[in-house]
Each structure stands twice: as structure tokens, then as C-alpha cells.
Give the backbone structure.
Amino acid sequence: MILRPDYINAITPFIDQPIVKIFAGIRRSGKSTIFEMLKLELQKRGVSESNIIQRKYTEMDIPQNMTAQQMYSELKNAITGKSRCYLLLDELQEVNGWEKAVNSLLEGADVDIYVTGSNFKLMSSEISTYLTGRYVSIPVYTLSFREYLDFKAESGKSQRELLDEYLRYGGFPLVALGNYEEHSAYQIVNGIYHTVISRDIVKRHRITKQNLFDRVVKYIIENMGKTFSANSITKFLKNEFRTVSVESIYNYLRWLEQAFIIYPCQRYDLQGKSVLKTQEKYYLADVSLKYCLLGYNRRMLDAAMENIVFLELKRRGYDVYIGKNDAKEIDFIAARRDEKIYIQVCVQLPENSDREVGNLMEIRDHYPKYVVTMNHMDAGIENGIKIVHLADFLLAEYW
């Protein structure tokens, strides 16, 4: 097992605190492995293995359509007669009403509870009702570049080769653990994608026109990192003689977000100092989700770099926005407490770098400003703006 210590560091302050710890992210992002790491951490602290109760609610030995009452009773029996127990409950969204059972255990038993799930239902209003102020959410993403290097430590490949791989193959741990050719890697990702689509969206929301839904999803994935609206999608599909309502498009976007396939990125108006409600962009949970459907070519590199930078910012706990400064656009504004950074992303700086450097120069505050590029020759400082290679940006301890 290759460790991902950032997640243990994130959960450590909450161990033995009377709150439910929720790890949520796309399927196969490594949530079950995080539980294995957590189990080791608990054992290091002197917790007996018999007091660590682990359940995976997608296993064959778990009754199909298990009720919350059945789940509660089974766990209650498992902890009876024991001192403080640690419940590690994996893929809990499969049990309808699980939040009631968890709330009852939290209130009536000597337990410390940890939950994983692959659906945004984990963050639904029911949780707010039953676990108000008593849960903390820790998002789980596919591998960062630093983690990818750890997974590939025995490969004998250079950092540059591994960055090229990371850009092409993405960060799903299952892919990183193997030594796959491109076609095989995308087959694995394609299987993950279709599992999410079929189980977490089509089946859950009873979508009957799956061909139409698949076409909408393909459009969204083709246009990752670009501005589009529900209206623009309906007009595009109308040209293909397909009919879909704007309301349906909004539902599809929401369901893709709930299944952690996409992440929205809103626009922030630097002049008006406000978040805009229109023209948001969407980024994918992993760049390989695009390649498994559309194939890979170097023309996708700009969008892939943007997606990777966006995810790295999210991993580090930043709120991320697209910046609007009058008529000009900043790729990302990232804010975390009293910190803020501005970022432009490009494969390499053109001779006239007005969009990349010039747009940043027009921002009159003193927060750090970066241009992230793939060309080592571009690296340096221009008019106070740091120009850094993508690998250096991703591996920096702080910005």
C-alpha cells in the first residue's frame, strides 16, 4: 500500500472528536485505501484491531437494499460489550437513510465514526438535519502529481517523463499502480466512468433517454474549462435534431457534480468584488475522463493543464474562481482564509505575452501572481510576476 499522508494529516485533528468524518469523492479515487491508512494510524495509537469495525456497503455479503435499521442493528451488535469502537463505513450512500442510523450511533454509543461515499448525497439536506454541526467533510481527489511520483518511485523514469504520463494518463490510483499502455489505461478509466454514469446517475435518477443523456455528457466533457450555458447545449443539440429542455440540462449538470465527475468554477468580478451567477466553467475530476471518451492529442494540453492546476488548488483547500477584470479574464483566482493568488496557465508564453502577463499586471493588489507553463525556458520573473514550470508549481510546498 502506497501512503497518501495528506489525508491522514487532514483527519488527525478530528480523531476521537464527537463528529462524523466524511470522505467524499469520485469512485476509485482511493477512499478505501485511505481507510486502510486510517486503520494503521489508529493501531499506532493503541487501538485494538477488534475495536476497529470496518464495513463496505458494496460487498456481496451485505444484504441488497439494506435498510438503515438493519445497518444500525448490525453495527450495534458488533460493538456490544466492547470499549470505544471506531466505525469505518465505506460507500455508505448505498444505504438509504444511513444518516439516521449514524446519528443514533453517535448519540447513543461510545464510537468514533468515519464514512466514505461516491455521491454528493453525502452532503444532502438530510445530513444537515440529522448531523447539524457534527460532521466534517474531507474531499478526496485522484492523485496529485506529488502522489503520482510516489506511486511511480520504482519506475526508473525521470520527473519529466512522469509529468508527461500524468498529463496523459491522469491520477486514478488504479492506473498509476500499473504499467499500462495508453489504450489499456483508458479502458480502465472508461470502466470507472461508466460505473459512475450507470450506477450513480442513470439508475439513481431513473434516466430513460440514456442516449440523449450520454450526448449531453460528452458535450460537457468536450468543453471542459470552457464557458457554456444550458441554453447553448440545447441549441447545439437542436442542430443534431435532438430535443432536450434547459431544465434537463441543469439536472444533468447537477447530477454529474453530485457524482464528482465535474466540479463547477464560478466567475469572480474583480471590479465589483462579487461572484457572478452566469458563465461558470466546469472541470473534470480527472483529465483522463476526457481522454477515455475522446482519445488524447497534444491539442488538448492547454485544457488539461488548466484542469490539473484547478484540482491542485482544490486539493490544497483553496476556493477557486475564474477572474473577470473588466473585459479581461484571469484563469484562476484562488482564495484561502486571508491568502489569495492569481494564476494564468499556458503551454508556453507567446512572443506577445499580453494575455498571460499583461492581464495579471493590471491587478493592482500585492498578492502573488503566477503564469504556469510547460516551457522551462520561460521560467523566471517578469514585471514581478512569477513564471513557473507546471512541475515546479505542482510540487511547491507553498506558493
About this structure: DSSP finds 16 helices and 13 strands in the chain. The chain has two domains: 5-139, 145-395. The longest helix spans residues 182-202. The two ends are 30 Å apart (CA to CA).
